[in-house]
Amino acid sequence: MRRSDWRLSGAQKVDARQALALLEGTGISLVEAARMALERGAGASVASVTVDEAVAGFLQARRAKGLRNRTLEWYGIELVRFAESVPVRRLDQVTRTMVRGYVQARARGSQGPAWRAVRALFRFARRQEPPWVLVDPTEGLVFETPRQDGRRVSVLRPEQAEVLLRAGELRRYRAAVALALFAGVRPGELGEGDKPPLRWEHVQEADRVVRVPAEVSKTRVTRVLEGLPEALWAWLAAVPREEKVGPVAPGRFRQVVRPARRLLGLEVWPADCTRHSFASYAVALLGDAGQVALWLGHEGDQRLLHRHYRGLVSRADAERFFGLRP
Predict the structure, then answer these.
(1) Which of 25, 107, 205, 259, by CA, is between 20 and 30 Å from 300?
(2) What pLDDT digit, counting tens, does each position of 29-46 carry?
(3) Is 298 helix (H, G, I), strand (E, B) or coil?
(4) Backbone dihedral region of 50: left (phi > 0), alpha (psi from -120 to 50 degrees) or beta?
């Protein structure tokens, strides 16, 4: 299409100016107004729902789906804050300008989570019958949480991993640490919050399989891990048989963090660093992003692996990492 094809005629320019004048002060963009007009003209109707009612309905629906209490609490905090910030009462009166202003007013590191919560609310609202909104004001908006240290993930060095595995004060958590480092099991799946933790019956040493059931998995989907590195089985084999009952971690996995920080001389424990370490070293060693994605529960999607983990560590370091033995 030629550039000249995008030029407005004189009459179109007049219409545009008049439309913008009518919308001044409403927070509604010309594109939003056009979408509303088209949908209303097609006979679409919208339910009269207040922002507060929409938030309550969204949370009730998520609770009915079995969402974790911790996630429900996060949604509640974010969406109540959003409801208090918008200057309108009805949900269908919320505009893109209001959403953008709300998100941009948040601290830089909180913008991504705030936007995701609001986007989830409006996507839910569009699916209702009749819909609670005709136009989703979050559509097309993008807010990303900035990286804090110039890197997407933090990875433990092989010698740091060895310190954690050999530390006497972490002996009771050694199996859980091994599963986190050599199988990428999430800390939350090893014992956090209100979810049941991974148990020894889920670890089938004879068959070399770890099964993360749906009720344990963060994604509520069962994950079966096969072909895992031999380092995992070596460390698990070192655990006395009488201890292999009940949960793999004897308490909340976060109890590892404080002594681990002290042992490694860290002021802050890097978020999900054990899982990030497993992914980074596995990609470097195997060169098979598809297999690592399956282990992580990304359903074979290699894009996340390439974006976050590829090239972070060397193959030599990966060999040292997976070469760790009791």
Answers:
(1) 205
(2) 666 666 555 545 444 556
(3) coil
(4) beta
Task: Compute the radius of gyration of the chain from its Cα atoms.
Answer: 25
Q: Which two tokens stand for residue 149?
A: 């240290």
Decide if domain 158-322 falls under CATH 1.10.443.10: yes
Residues 6+ apart with CB under 8 A from 199: 246, 247, 248
Tens-place pLDDT, residues 133-146? 887 888 766 664 44
**Residue 244 exposed, middle or buried by CB count within 10 Å (0-12, 13-18, 19+):** middle
The predicted model scores a pTM of: 0.58
Q: Tokens standing for 214? A: 């749906």
- Write out the CATH class of domain 39-144: mainly alpha
DSSP assignment letter at 196: P
Q: Which of 81-85, 193-197, 206-210 has the lowest mean pLDDT?
A: 193-197
Checking 161-166 for CB contacts under 8 A at 24+ apart, the result is: 161/277, 161/321, 161/324, 162/324, 163/263, 163/264, 164/256, 164/260, 164/263, 164/264, 165/235, 165/324, 165/326
Cβ atoms within 10 A of the Cβ of 90, count?
A: 17
Omega into 187 within 30° of 0, i.e. cis? no
Q: From CA 137, how far away is CA 93, in angstroms rounded?
A: 10
Predicted confidence (pLDDT) per residue in 238-269, tens digit: 999 999 999 999 988 888 989 999 999 988 88
Distances (CA, A) of 130 to 18, 86, 121: 32, 23, 15
CATH 1.10.150.130 domain range(s) in the chain: 39-144
Residue type, 158: P
